[in-house]
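Lay summary. Proteins are chains of building blocks that fold into shapes, and those shapes determine what they do. In this project we predict the shape from the chain. Here is one chain we studied, written as its sequence of building blocks.
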Amino acid sequence: MSPIRRRLARARRWLLEHDHRVSFTVLYISLALILSMAISMFWLVAVVAAHAVIEYWTLGKLGPADQRLGRTLWHIRLDIVLVLAALWLGLYIDLLFGIAGLGAAARTGAQVSARVVAWQRTIRGVLLSVDEAALAAKAALGGQSDTPGPARRREAPLPWREPWSWGDRLTIGSSALLFGLILLTPVLTDHSVVEALRLLAEDLHPWPP
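And here is the predicted shape, written in a compact code that computers can read:
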């Protein structure tokens, strides 16, 4: 086998076993934290989407044939909560600080409101760290992956039809709550629908000014 084929084979094996690879966990955590906090939330979404693509591909090679998309979304459910929490924070920062207009002023570059931007980044960093710490703990403790190995190919039941743990209930409940709050932003905050969409667009801009 040529050196190029050996490298490709190692890369393929690394991707197939990514859930059990400490190197993948470290790379994933580093990219999620650094890119999202240093640049914008767009890159957090991009990292999560890349993880979803890898998981979907892995399921096609090793996992059950049915409900690949559903299994993929279930596998990255912690990541989805993280994205929703970060977007919710950007919409509700004014309400959380209890100072009308301060969040909007933060986006104008005003000196006083720069502190709010720093607080927002800090809170998002905490949210990111908590979520990524859970992923790191799962990898370090050798937790069971949602993607079955070759010996159990196409035999695993649908994970969401199995008994839910408290973690599953908390994760799904948090996702539903955060998604509902994002939809209700014009009702629960001073932002109009247009303003809420503008704030989301700013947070998700790949290269913010």
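What the prediction tells us: The mean pLDDT is 78.
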